[in-house]
């Protein structure tokens, strides 16, 4: 018998308390329909955990995460945390501890929701652990420092291993999709840093003769994403380029509420994490778009279905996708940011109805 999937629920902050429960309700309903056994583990994290456990990433949360197959991480509003040693931003620690080196961020257009283009279906794979936001262990001291009050130095770390890891994740994804991979860089200027990333992308090409490999310079990429996003399938790039380009891509298809993400690596676990932040400006109003979080959750179950050889989980993910797409098509239920008249609850209920119907 297939083992139950062990999945963590980490609400995060602000709208996380609205969109994570919505995603879990939908996943539970889909799992029930398709007979997927899931052992759910709600875990404290973020501002609430600071109140209840005295830490934004309590040790018991970390211990439990090590026993799980994957988890849903709501957005974290760390900029509002008090300045205290136990009020840390959990993101870098989670990504590093579980070696989640690839952040897979799809962009897909849907009719009538305010997309700037039709027929967009691309995925940006962003390196997650280095670049301008390196893990502290890679450096002596901080990534930024001021040798004197007039000058700031910001360091960018590029490693062969990090570049190879993310490039391989992108090649594998391209192989499952339209078999076209574009690596994005600026080796014309950053000859050593981007140069190393480019070398590692090219080195893997002979292992993937079925994948068409090309490259675009990052500034040109910003222009081309705006003008002809349909010409891309899978895009792989370094940390900060990926951060910026994936928000740009989200803007093409209805905004941040439409931008899901999945963090994966070689540790065998997956972390569902929407691209957007905790949106404190709209928190508590019941109007946050849950799509990105729901779709991130769906991606996690699809990934686990394949990596755990659990075909029911793959079916469950397909059902979530179908129900979400159907609900997106109804302006009465979808949220205001994507030209709807509904809210978080109406959108979620509609997806649940489609799942059960
Ligand atoms: P971070 O640094 O954590 O990425 P940010 O400063 O980029 O955060 P967000 O929290 O992502 O900011 O919010 C940016 C804008 O997008 C806000 O106006 C917010 O209300 C809106 N937004 C973000 N997520 C959603 C969502 N799921 N539904 C509707 N609006 C959203
Ligand atoms: Mg942001």
Automatic annotation (TrEMBL):
Instruction: Return the InterPro entries for the record.
Output: IsoCit/isopropylmalate_DH_CS, IsoPropMal-DH-like_dom
- GO biological process annotation, one example: isocitrate metabolic process
**A molecular function GO annotation:** NAD binding
Keyword presence, Calcium: no
Q: Which UniProt keywords apply?
A: Oxidoreductase
Q: Which domain of life is it from?
A: Bacteria
Domain Isopropylmalate dehydrogenase-like, first and last residues per copy: 6-351
Pfam families under this entry? Iso_dh
Q: Which family does it belong to?
A: Belongs to the isocitrate and isopropylmalate dehydrogenases family.
Instruction: Indicate what this protein is called per its UniProt record.
Output: Isocitrate/isopropylmalate dehydrogenase family protein
Supply the source organism for this entry.
Ramlibacter albus
């Amino acid at each position: 018998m297939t083992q139950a999937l062990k999945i963590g629920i980490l609400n995060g902050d602000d709208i996380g308390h609205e969109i994570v429960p919505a995603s879990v309700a939908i996943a539970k309903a889909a799992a029930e329909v398709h007979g997927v056994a899931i052992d759910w583990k709600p875990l404290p994290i973020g501002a609430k955990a600071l109140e209840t456990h005295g830490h934004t990433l309590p040790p018991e949360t970390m211990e439990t995460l090590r026993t799980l197959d994957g988890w849903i991480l709501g957005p974290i509003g760390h900029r509002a945390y008090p300045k205290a040693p136990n009020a840390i931003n959990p993101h870098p620690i989670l990504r590093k501890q579980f070696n989640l080196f690839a952040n897979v961020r799809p962009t897909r257009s849907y009719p009538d929701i305010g997309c700037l283009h039709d027929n967009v279906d691309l995925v940006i794979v962003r390196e997650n652990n280095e670049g301008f936001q390196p893990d502290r262990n890679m450096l002596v001291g901080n990534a930024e420092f001021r040798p004197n009050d007039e000058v700031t130095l910001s360091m960018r770390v590029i490693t062969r291993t990090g570049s190879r890891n993310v490039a391989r994740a992108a090649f594998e994804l391209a192989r499952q999709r339209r078999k076209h991979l574009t690596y994005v860089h600026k080796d014309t200027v950053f000859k050593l840093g981007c140069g190393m990333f480019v070398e590692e992308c090219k080195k893997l090409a002979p292992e993937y003769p079925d994948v068409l490999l090309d490259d675009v310079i990052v500034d040109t990429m910003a222009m081309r994403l705006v003008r002809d996003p349909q010409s891309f399938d899978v895009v792989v790039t370094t940390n900060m380029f990926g951060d910026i380009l994936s928000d740009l891509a989200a803007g093409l298809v209805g905004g941040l509420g439409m931008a899901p993400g999945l963090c994966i690596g070689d540790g065998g676990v997956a972390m569902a994490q929407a691209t957007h932040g905790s949106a404190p400006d709209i928190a508590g109003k019941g109007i946050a778009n849950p799509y990105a979080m729901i779709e991130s959750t769906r991606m996690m179950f699809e990934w686990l279905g394949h990596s755990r050889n659990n075909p029911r989980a793959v079916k469950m993910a397909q059902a979530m996708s179908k129900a979400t797409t159907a609900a997106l098509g109804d302006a009465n239920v979808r949220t205001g940011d994507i030209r709807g008249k509904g809210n978080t609850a109406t959108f979620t209920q509609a997806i649940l109805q489609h799942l059960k119907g």
